[in-house]
């Protein structure tokens, strides 16, 4: 009985891997898209603020991209 349960859980591991990387990639993509869109809006309204907007935008994009990397690491760690 116990072996059947373990085999069932192990058989769902690829699904978990796919969900981990897929959902994290979608979340990161949405986040980066929102960050870039809002930054371009801000620069479009006030072109002199390009230097003030660019660095925080890049830092926020890096944090959003980290979510996808965490998802990838979790997908690789699932056995």
Structural descriptors:
79 residues
The helix/strand order is: HHH
Rg over alpha carbons: 19 Å
Q: Provide mean pLDDT, rounded.
A: 92
Overall geometric form: rod-shaped
**Could you give the count of β-strands?**
0
Which residues form runs of ≥5 with pLDDT under 50? none
> Which structural class best describes the helix and strand composition?
mainly alpha
Strand content: under 5%
Distance between the termini: 21 Å
Largest sheet: none
Helical segment tally? 3
* Percent range of helical residues: over 70%
List the helices and strands and how they pair.
Layout: H1 2-11, H2 13-45, H3 50-77
Helix pairs in contact: 2-3
Outline the structure in words.
By secondary structure, the chain is an all-alpha fold. 90% of the residues lie in helices and 0% in strands. The two termini are 21 Å apart. The model has no long low-confidence stretch (mean pLDDT 92).
Task: Describe, in short, the structure shown.
The chain is mostly helical and 79 residues long.
């Amino acid at each position: 009985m116990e072996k059947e349960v373990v085999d069932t859980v192990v058989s769902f591991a690829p699904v978990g891997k796919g969900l981990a990387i897929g959902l994290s990639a979608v979340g990161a993509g949405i986040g980066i898209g929102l960050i870039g869109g809002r930054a371009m809006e801000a620069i479009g309204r006030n072109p002199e603020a390009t230097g003030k907007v660019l660095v925080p935008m890049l830092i926020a994009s890096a944090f959003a991209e980290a979510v996808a990397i965490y998802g990838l690491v979790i997908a690789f760690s699932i056995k």
